[in-house]
Write the structure tokens for this entry.
Amino acid sequence: MVVSLRSFNQKYGKIAAYQTLPIECVFNAFMYQFCSPQIQFMRAGIRIAGLIVVVSLFFAGCKSKKDTQGGGRGNARQKGELSVEGFVVGPSSVSEDVEVAGTLMPAEETQIRAEVNGRVVQMNIQEGTVISKGTLLVKLFDQDLQAQLNKLEVQLKIADKTVERQKELLSINGISQQDYDLSSLNADNLRADIQSIKIAIAKTEIRAPYSGQLGLRYISMGSYVGPTDIITTLREVDQLKIEFSVPEKYAKNIAKGYTVKFRVDGGKQEHVATVMATEGNVDPSTRTLRIRALVKGKNAELVPGVFARVNLQLGQDDKALMIPSQAIIPMARNKQVIVFRKDSAIFRVIETGVRDSAYVQVTTGLQKGDTIITTGLMAIRPATKVKIAKVNRLQ
């Protein structure tokens, strides 16, 4: 629908330069000319009222905050200094116990191997039995060596007889000294060859190097074995050792003769061992020192290879300064405590040592008789006035 703008302008006034407009535009123009002042006035009033409410709330909040702060200061003035609990630092007896992992091992353990290649023709390995030193375990084929030995022995007999005859001839100048010397040298060479063959035959006999307990065997009768093949294992189980490692900071405290205590998994009693040797240097990759100790006594629960928990008692300090762990304030680069001086709080940097479930040893930074604050640490600032409500001591 289109309305003539000329007739509209004559009745209501000129509102546009166009001759014709859609009815919607005419209606909007009408509402703007006749209704907009009232609507704008109402909107302005609403905005002003909202602004007044916001400003009123703002000032009311500021006043409430000031009242609260004023009341807090009043309460603080009424309460006075900050009330906290203190702890008097005094000497105490403490021992540093360190638990490390260890492994039980036999005093001696050997993998039995053959020195030469050969076929097994005799075997005397009963798994798990205890044998004595020198017991024949395995015999390799040696008939070829035995034949060479017999041949050399026959040659040696002939050479010895030749030397005897030439000796008699030499006495009557029947031969020269050189001929006699050559015969003697030949006999000596045969003796050396015989000794060499006997050594080769001895290598075909594999014997126990010491008394101990046999492990499992890994070969059978008729097997062809060499130096790289494991025949069985032999362990000296009458005496056990325990091996463990300690951090480098404790390396100076452990030496030969030091006594350690340990327990094995599933064990019912504590065992004792004496340090027999330490590694010559600290392992640079793990920063630990390897130690071996000799176990005292025998027990059925002590089996080579089992895991053990080794307890190291690294001395006792009867003048250690112990403080509650909650009194320490950890910082980025150090640790601090708050020391009570007269009526003020002083922050002091400390260094710690041994720690247990509730107390920490202080090595530097505190002295006997100092009073440290243990409660309200987050509310205390340097030079804050405090009051000790309760004083605790280490029992």
About this structure: The chain has five helices and 21 strands. The first strand starts at residue 2 and ends at 4.
